[in-house]
């Protein structure tokens, strides 16, 4: 079955301190697709990504290539799923290369040494994220965007077929936002990687993601193709900010939030806008 | 195999560490209360000593002291480097982490038990202490590590960075307990307590080194083996988990190894403070942060440092010896303040 989902989540629910964070999320994603998770702050995006990467066990089931990911041992899981988490801090002075090399860990035994293939993987990852000239620089001395690219390079070195990235373009300027998402899309196409990424920029998500999922207060309110998910009414309701969606002739979508549309009502205080 | 001298990099810190690790112990054999010339030392080392007195001074007093000193420095530095990397806190050290106090408590209980409860005769005490002391110290150190883990989990909100706070609390708690046990249970308690507080190499014997050597070697090999996994902890527990590292088991394993290293030091030489804090700090800035380099560098540098401090302890005051723990604590406390300032 060519279109059978490689990643399938069924009825995922998570409660933290008795507070529901995710309510029965179900989604399926074929291999080689870039899936964007959207939603306002606190909607449950990070929690969903943690469930999909087995960092968090909620109710429900997450299947990767037909196997329940919670049944994989830690090392096998790392060989299957690479994760770039939102908060990454290093306390000691690691260089970029040392951070990237850590992506080799899931493929190495305790006594294994680095080989030519590993070197090549590191070099390719550095090339892909444009950090070749910064490989010996301290990770902590890199800009936010460079740190993000460095962590993506680490995920590439990990060579896992499933990549999960929590807001990977958060600290990046416009140029690198596009560069990183182009890179992720190219990885889906050329290496058949399945990539799940949470994003805040809806226009960017529409431009690069094959499918989107929109979360609101722990519920998946829409999932599917960008044009089906990015509906002005739905977005206005979800983000509580008036919004318009423009369709260009070449098929691109542009999402604009325009608070002045409804200036007489204080949407910042939580009133409903439409 | 021909060594190409042209390829030897004189800027390599490893070359200097290895050279000093070989030279410093030999150099330190020249110093002590009795006069032994360089020739006497060389003769004793590579052949038979000239006379019986020289033999006793060299093989029973000086050599054990240097060998034990090097191993003590290496063990404490290894424990400090490991604690700093697994807790992601550059100020972690077996002393501040409570491991020294735990080992001290174990040793105090063993001392009182052998002296007061078993009433082991004086001539058999050597053997009894040889086995009981390190074992009890190890159990005490394990108790301290367990308490730190439990406290860090229950009281300090599971944040690994806060483990040090739990360690300081445990350290005070166990120190108070061991001093009380020694005070109540041993007629020579004051001496014992002072010994633990100051730390000393003065009682070093050759068999100390033979007990410590395999412990340090095994612990170091294990830590080097898990080096890349320990490195992953530097990125945080969450990231280490996604790289296939079993964070929980690795941390418990590393803390147990630190308990073993610290216990074998404390059992024979008392609490020697701040070596485990200072040496890894210096080596990290000099050689690098990754665990394998840090551990190897710390072991060598720690050994060199302790041997040199012991020389100073022997020669600083004519005819007297300063307990080595006083010197390391004096240097270490200043270093601690400087490190805090650098972080601040």
TrEMBL record, chain A:
SUPFAM superfamilies (alphabetical): P-loop containing nucleoside triphosphate hydrolases (SSF52540)
Origin superkingdom: Bacteria
Domain (ABC transporter) ranges: 7-242
SMART domains named in the record: AAA (SM00382)
Family annotation (PROSITE patterns): ABC_TRANSPORTER_2 (PS50893)
Molecular function GO terms recorded: ATP binding; ATP hydrolysis activity
Transmembrane segments: none
Alphabetical keyword list: ATP-binding, Nucleotide-binding, Transport
Family: Belongs to the ABC transporter superfamily.
Official protein name in the record: ABC cobalamin uptake system ATPase BtuD
Source organism of this protein record: Agaribacter marinus
Gene giving rise to this polypeptide: btuD
UniProtKB/TrEMBL annotation, chain B:
Keyword list, A-Z: Cell membrane, Membrane, Transmembrane, Transmembrane helix, Transport
Major location (coarse): membrane
GO annotation, cellular component aspect: plasma membrane
Topology versus the membrane: Multi-pass membrane protein
CDD domains cross-referenced by the UniProt entry: TM_ABC_iron-siderophores_like
Protein localization: Cell membrane
GO process annotations (BP): siderophore-iron import into cell
Transmembrane segments: 62-83, 95-117, 129-151, 163-182, 211-230, 250-283, 295-316, 322-340
GO molecular function, one term: transmembrane transporter activity
Family to which this protein belongs: Belongs to the binding-protein-dependent transport system permease family. FecCD subfamily.
UniProt xrefs under PANTHER family: FERRIC ENTEROBACTIN TRANSPORT SYSTEM PERMEASE PROTEIN (PTHR30472), PERMEASE OF ABC TRANSPORTER-RELATED (PTHR30472:SF67)
Protein name per its UniProtKB record: ABC transporter permease
Organism: Agaribacter marinus
Highest classification ranks of the organism: Bacteria, Pseudomonadati, Pseudomonadota, Gammaproteobacteria, Alteromonadales
């Amino acid at each position: 079955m060519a279109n059978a989902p490689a990643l399938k989540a069924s009825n995922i629910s998570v409660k933290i301190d008795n507070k529901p964070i995710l309510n029965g999320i179900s989604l399926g994603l074929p291999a080689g697709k870039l899936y964007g998770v959207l939603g306002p702050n606190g909607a449950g995006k990070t929690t969903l990504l943690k469930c999909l990467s087995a960092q968090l066990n909620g109710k429900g089931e997450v299947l990767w290539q037909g196997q329940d990911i919670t049944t994989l041992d830690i090392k096998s899981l790392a060989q299957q799923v690479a994760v770039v988490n939102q908060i990454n801090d290093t306390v000691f002075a690691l260089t970029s290369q040392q951070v990237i090399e850590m992506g080799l860990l899931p493929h190495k035994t305790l006594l294994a040494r680095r080989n030519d293939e590993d070197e090549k993987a590191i070099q390719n990852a550095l090339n892909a994220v444009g950090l070749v000239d910064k490989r010996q620089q301290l990770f902590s001395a890199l800009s936010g965007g460079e740190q993000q690219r460095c962590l993506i390079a680490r995920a590439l070195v990990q060579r896992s077929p499933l990549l999960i990235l929590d807001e990977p373009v958060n600290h990046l300027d416009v140029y690198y936002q596009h560069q990183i998402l182009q890179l992720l899309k190219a990885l889906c196409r050329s290496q058949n990687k399945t990539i799940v990424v949470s994003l805040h920029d809806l226009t960017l998500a529409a431009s690069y993601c094959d499918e989107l999922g929109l979360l609101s207060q722990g519920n998946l309110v829409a999932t599917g193709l960008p044009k089906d998910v990015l509906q002005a009414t739905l977005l206005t309701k979800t983000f509580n900010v008036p919004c318009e969606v423009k369709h260009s002739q070449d098929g691109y979508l542009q999402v604009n939030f325009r608070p002045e549309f409804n200036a007489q009502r204080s949407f910042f205080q939580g009133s409903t806008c439409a | 195999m021909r060594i190409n001298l042209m390829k030897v990099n004189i800027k390599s810190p490893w070359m200097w560490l290895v050279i000093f690790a070989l030279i410093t112990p030999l150099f330190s054999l020249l110093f002590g209360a009795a006069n032994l010339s360089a020739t006497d030392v060389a003769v004793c080392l590579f052949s038979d000593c000239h006379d019986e007195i020289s033999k006793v001074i060299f093989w029973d007093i000086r050599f054990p002291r240097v060998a034990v000193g090097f191993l003590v420095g290496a063990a404490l530095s290894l424990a400090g480097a490991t604690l700093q990397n697994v807790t992601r806190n550059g100020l972690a050290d077996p002393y501040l982490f409570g491991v020294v106090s735990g080992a001290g408590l174990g040793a105090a209980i063993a001392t009182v038990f052998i002296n007061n409860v078993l009433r082991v005769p004086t001539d058999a005490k050597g053997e009894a202490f040889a086995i009981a002391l390190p074992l009890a110290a190890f159990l005490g150190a394990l108790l301290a590590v367990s308490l730190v883990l439990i406290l860090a989990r229950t009281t300090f909100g599971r944040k690994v960075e806060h483990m040090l706070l739990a360690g300081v609390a445990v350290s005070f708690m166990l120190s108070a307990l061991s001093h009380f046990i020694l005070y109540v249970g041993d007629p020579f308690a004051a001496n014992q307590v002072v010994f633990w507080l100051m730390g000393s190499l003065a009682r070093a014997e050759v068999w100390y080194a033979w007990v410590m050597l395999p412990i340090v070697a095994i612990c170091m090999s294990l830590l080097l083996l898990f080096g890349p996994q320990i490195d992953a902890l530097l990125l945080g527990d969450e990231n280490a988990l996604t790289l296939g590292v079993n964070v929980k088991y690795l941390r418990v394993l590393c803390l147990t190894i630190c308990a073993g290293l610290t216990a074998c030091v404390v059992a024979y030489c008392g609490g020697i403070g701040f070596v485990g804090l200072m040496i890894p700090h210096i080596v990290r800035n000099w050689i690098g942060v990754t665990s394998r380099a840090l551990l190897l560098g710390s072991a060598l540098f720690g050994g060199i440092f302790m041997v040199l401090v012991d020389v100073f302890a022997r020669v600083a005051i004519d005819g007297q010896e300063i307990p080595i723990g006083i010197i390391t604590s004096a240097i270490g406390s200043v270093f601690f303040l400087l490190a805090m300032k650098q972080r601040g």
